[in-house]
Design a protein that fits this description.
Blueprint lengths: L4 H11 L3 H21 L3 H10 L15 H9 L4 H8 L3 H4 L6 H10 L1 H10 L11 H9 L9 H15 L8 H13 L13
Helix pairs in contact: 1-3, 2-3, 2-7, 2-11, 3-7, 4-5, 7-10
The structure holds fe (ii) ion (2 copies).
Length: 200
C-alpha cells in the first residue's frame, strides 16, 4: 500500500522536535487542503505534500542537505517517487527538480507565505491569527525589513506560476487572493498553530 497522510505525520514527528517547524508544516498543509478543495484535487495528496515537505529540515538544516538528503530517506522508507519528486520540487534551485504537477506548484506557492502570515499574527497584541486581516499582511509584505527572510519576489513568482499552472480554475486570481486563502486556512487551525491568543 502506498504511503499517505498518517505516514507523513509520523515521519515529521520522528525527525522534528522543534514545535515551530511542525507548525510551519501544518500551516502549509492547511493552505494545501484549502486549494485541493477549491480546485477539486486530491486533498490527501495535497495535505501530505504540505505536512511532509520540510520533515528533514531539523536534521538537515542547510540547503545543500535539505531536501535532497530527506528525499533519500523517503525513498529508503518506501515513499513513492512521485511524492519524493514533489518534495524535491519545493526547492528547484538546489535540487534541480522543477515543479511539474499542480500539487508541486501549489506547494511552492503556499510554503513561504505562511511565514509572513505567522509573523504578522505574532506582532499583534492579541497574538491571535483570527484577528489578522488581509490588509495587515499586505502592509507587512510592503515593509521589506519585516520578516526579511521571506523573499517577496520568490513568493510572487511561485504564486504566479501556480496560478498559470491551474489554468481556468484560478482565472483572475492574484497574489492577494492567494494570501487571503492561505490566511483563512491558517485561521481555521489557529489552535494547532498556537496562534489563538495563548501567547498574548
Ligand atoms: Fe524546505
Ligand atoms: Fe517550508
Amino acid at each position: 500500500m502506498s504511503k499517505g497522510y498518517q505516514d507523513a505525520l509520523e515521519i515529521v514527528h520522528e525527525f522534528t522536535k522543534n514545535p515551530n517547524f511542525v507548525k510551519h508544516m501544518l500551516a502549509v498543509e492547511a493552505g494545501m487542503r484549502a486549494y485541493a478543495q477549491k480546485l477539486g484535487e486530491d486533498e490527501e495528496l495535497w495535505a501530505t505534500a504540505g505536512i511532509l515537505h520540510d520533515f528533514d529540515w531539523e536534521i538537515h538544516p542547510t540547503l545543500d542537505e535539505h531536501p535532497v538528503k530527506g528525499a533519500e530517506l523517503l525513498r529508503e522508507r518506501g515513499w513513492d517517487e512521485e511524492m519524493v519528486r514533489t518534495v524535491l520540487s519545493h526547492y528547484p534551485s538546489g535540487t534541480g527538480v522543477e515543479p511539474e504537477r499542480l500539487v508541486d506548484f501549489g506547494l511552492t506557492a503556499c510554503d513561504e507565505i505562511t511565514g509572513l502570515i505567522t509573523a504578522t499574527a505574532l506582532v499583534r497584541p492579541s497574538k491571535d491569527i483570527r484577528d489578522v486581516r488581509l490588509k495587515s499582511v499586505k502592509k507587512k509584505w510592503k515593509d521589506r525589513s519585516f520578516a526579511a527572510g521571506v523573499d517577496r519576489e520568490h513568493v510572487a513568482a511561485a504564486v504566479e506560476a501556480f496560478i498559470a499552472a491551474a489554468g481556468p480554475a484560478l482565472e483572475g486570481w492574484d497574489l492577494w487572493q492567494h494570501v487571503d486563502l492561505a490566511l483563512q486556512a491558517m485561521q481555521g487551525i489557529a489552535t494547532e498553530l498556537g496562534l489563538d491568543g495563548r501567547l498574548a
